[in-house]
Amino acid sequence: MLKVYNTLTRRKEDFHPSHGNRVSMFVCGPTVYDLSHIGHARTYIAYDIIARYLRFKGYSLFYLMNITDVDDKIIKRAKEENRKPMELAKEFTEKFYEDMNLLGINTINLFAKASEYIPEIISQIEGLVQKKYAYIVNGDVYYDISKFKDYGKLSHRSIDEIHKHRIEPDPKKKNHSDFSLWKSRKKDELAWDSPWSKGRPGWHIEDTAITITYFGPTYDIHGGALELIFPHHEAEIAQAEAYTGKKPLVKYWIHTGILNVRGRKMSKSLGNFITMKDILIKYRPEVLRFFFAQSHYRSNVDFKDENLLKAKEALESLYSIYKKIKKYHSLAPEDSGPKDKDIPKKIEEYEKKFYSAMDNDFNTPIAISHLISFGKFIDKQITNNTGRKTLESALNTIVRTGDILGLFQGFKQEKYRIEKLDDLIQIIIELREHFRKTKDWKMSDEIRDRLQKLGIVVEDTSEKPEWKFE
Question: What is the structure's pLDDT at 441?
Answer without folding.
Answer: 87
